[in-house]
Design a protein that fits this description.
Helices cover 35% and strands 21% of the residues. It is an alpha+beta fold.
């Protein structure tokens, strides 16, 4: 337990325009290499083109980017086709100017909400007879329509090609994740004096969002979770009009987005004197997280690359040994970058293959007692065994913090 509460000055300041310019230049320089890796995979798999629909993949490979939730109303705009010699970005009249600015290396092709109407011409324009398609993000109806529109073009369902590349983080990507972590760290430190018994979850969640948006974030990584007392037992609960309770836990799960890249952290605080039960649960979760991060650090120091399943087991074994295995149902961690949840996975069903590297992932064990309490502690970790490096990017303290 600590009597010193963190302050905003404890954390790095927000990015400045020079940072944004440097990151944009880094992306421009990296994009040809990213495309070359995809084309190598295309050649190895015997396909002529790659059709992408995920906004994160579009930004990674073409530079075209959407704002918060824009993909929900964009229709087919932002989707892209990588051929052997060129990249095509689809854009309707709302996005043609933007696409021309953000994806200057691509050919911009007009599109309507009826993708199938132009599919035959689009695939013919890049000489494609076999097209890899991000099948997990295309509906059955759309797939059938594309097949009917160009019967001589074979659609090949693929999954995880670009995502696997995105899991390996470039230095400029790590910088942005680190900056997003600092924005979130400072926001929570700024909020601490406002937390007291009686204020509602919704009020605190809104204030935390405002502090991130005015403190260097272009947006949120996801909606803020603020859960008091028994509600903290809901791993993905939503804040409501419930008041913060004296002597109970207060769980925050939140993240900032900086130049497209995201942070994700969870802190469980105590409002007033904590109960012995809650302190015991907190200590257990802290030890479980330390076990998993310790395994990451040991592997990095030795230049070894573990798999995500073993890192999950390191945390899970601690919780199961304390008799709370049934109260920890989710995975220990997930990759993060342009998406909040991406590769790699740290879970009971994660692949038994070495983690990508360098990469960034969360470590977030939790224990949830229905109707009583819940504790989760989450940090982002940079793992780079080639550099013998494992580093927590989340700097906010993990000690027991009593506030209010």
């Amino acid at each position: 337990m600590t009597s010193h509460l963190p302050t905003p000055a404890d954390f790095a300041p927000p990015p400045v325009p020079a940072d944004l310019a440097r990151w944009a230049a880094a992306d421009d320089a990296a994009r040809p290499t990213r495309l070359a890796r995809l084309r190598e995979r295309m050649a190895a798999e015997g396909v002529d083109a790659y059709f992408g629909v995920r906004p994160e993949n579009s930004r990674y490979l073409t530079g075209f980017r959407f704002g918060d939730g824009e993909e929900k109303v964009a229709g087919n705009s932002g989707r892209f086709l990588v051929g052997g010699d060129e990249v095509v970005v689809l854009a309707d009249s709302r996005y043609t100017i933007q696409a021309g600015r953000e994806a200057p290396g691509a050919r911009i092709v007009p599109v309507t909400y009826d993708l199938a109407a132009g599919w035959a011409d689009l695939t013919a324009s890049v000489g494609a007879r076999r097209v890899a398609v991000e099948a997990g993000f295309v509906s059955h109806a759309a797939w059938t329509a594309l097949e009917a529109a160009a019967p001589d073009v074979e659609l090949v369902p693929v999954e995880g090609w670009v995502e696997a590349d995105r899991a390996v983080k470039e230095p400029a990507e790590v910088e942005r994740i680190r900056a997003a972590c600092a924005v979130a760290d400072r926001a929570l430190a700024t909020l601490l004096p406002e937390i007291r018994a009686g204020v509602t979850e919704a009020e605190l969640a809104w204030r935390l969002e405002v502090l991130m948006r005015t403190g260097g974030a272009e947006g949120l990584a996801f909606d803020v979770a603020c859960l008091a007392g028994p509600e903290a037992a809901l791993p993905h609960g939503s804040p409501g009009d419930r008041p913060v309770l004296e002597g109970a836990v207060l769980l925050f799960d939140f993240g900032a987005r900086v130049d497209g890249y995201r942070s994700d952290m969870t802190r469980t605080l105590f409002v007033g004197e904590p109960s012995a039960r809650d302190l015991a649960v907190y200590d257990l979760v802290a030890r479980a997280q330390a076990a998993s991060i310790g395994a990451v650090e040991a592997a990095a120091a030795a230049g070894l690359t573990p798999d995500g399943r073993s890192l999950d087991a390191a945390a899970r074994d601690v919780i199961e040994a304390a008799g709370h295995g049934d109260h920890f149902g989710h995975g220990t961690g997930h990759g993060i970058g342009l998406a909040t949840h991406e590769l790699p996975s740290l879970s009971r069903v994660a692949p038994k293959t070495p983690l990508p590297s360098p990469t960034v992932f969360s470590v977030e064990p939790g224990v949830y007692l229905e109707g009583e309490t819940g504790v989760r502690i989450e940090d982002l970790v940079l793992f780079d065994p080639a550099a013998r490096r494992a580093e927590r990017l989340t700097a906010f303290p993990r000690d027991v913090l009593v506030i209010g």
